Automatic annotation (TrEMBL):
Keywords: DNA-binding, Transcription, Transcription regulation
Protein name from the UniProt record: GntR family transcriptional regulator
Originating organism: Streptomyces anandii
Matching Pfam families: GntR (PF00392)
Residue ranges of domain HTH gntR-type in the record: 11-78
Family annotation (SMART domains): HTH_GNTR
Keyword Transcription recorded: yes
UniProt-listed PANTHER family: HTH-TYPE TRANSCRIPTIONAL REPRESSOR YTRA
Keyword Kinase found: no
Cross-referenced InterPro entries: Tscrpt_reg_HTH_GntR, WH-like_DNA-bd_sf, WH_DNA-bd_sf
Region (Disordered): 71-90
Length: 126
C-alpha cells in the first residue's frame, strides 16, 4: 500500500500522488468519509512540496473522489464520484454560503464605517 513517487516516472509528481490516493480510495483502503490526510502529512509521506500535494488534491476533487471543506479533504464513495463531480465539481455549498454570508456582513459593516467617516468630514471640510 505504500506506493512512492518515482523520479523515473515522466508524469508530474502531483499526478503520481493523485494516482496513488485514487487507487487507495478505489480499493477501499481510504473509506468514504475518511480523511485522506493533511497537506503536511501527505507532503511528508510522498516527499513532495505542499503545493504539489494541493495540485494532487485538486485532481482528485475534479474527479469527484474527494470533498474538501474548511476541515480538510475527505474520500467520497467511488460509486457516487462521477455523479458528484458532474453535479457540483467538489463544491461544498453550505461552506460557500457561510463564507458568502460572512463577506456580506463584513461589506455591510465597512459601508457603515465609511458613511460615518464621510459624515464626519463633510461639515468641517472644504
Amino acid at each position: 500500500m505504500s506506493a512512492e513517487i518515482s523520479k523515473d516516472d515522466p508524469r508530474p509528481e502531483s499526478e503520481q500522488a493523485a494516482d496513488i490516493l485514487r487507487q487507495e480510495i478505489l480499493r477501499g483502503d481510504i473509506k468514504p468519509g475518511a480523511h485522506v490526510g493533511s497537506v503536511r502529512d501527505l507532503a511528508t509521506r510522498f516527499k513532495i512540496s505542499g503545493m504539489t500535494v494541493q495540485r494532487a488534491l485538486t485532481i482528485l476533487r475534479e474527479d469527484g473522489l474527494i470533498l474538501t471543506t474548511s476541515r480538510g479533504s475527505y474520500a467520497r464513495d467511488p460509486e457516487q464520484a462521477t455523479e458528484a463531480s458532474e453535479a457540483d465539481a467538489g463544491v461544498d455549498l453550505p461552506e460557500v454560503l457561510r463564507q458568502l454570508e460572512h463577506l456580506t456582513s463584513q461589506v455591510s459593516e465597512l459601508r457603515g464605517r465609511l458613511e460615518a467617516l464621510e459624515n464626519r468630514s463633510v461639515p468641517g471640510g472644504a
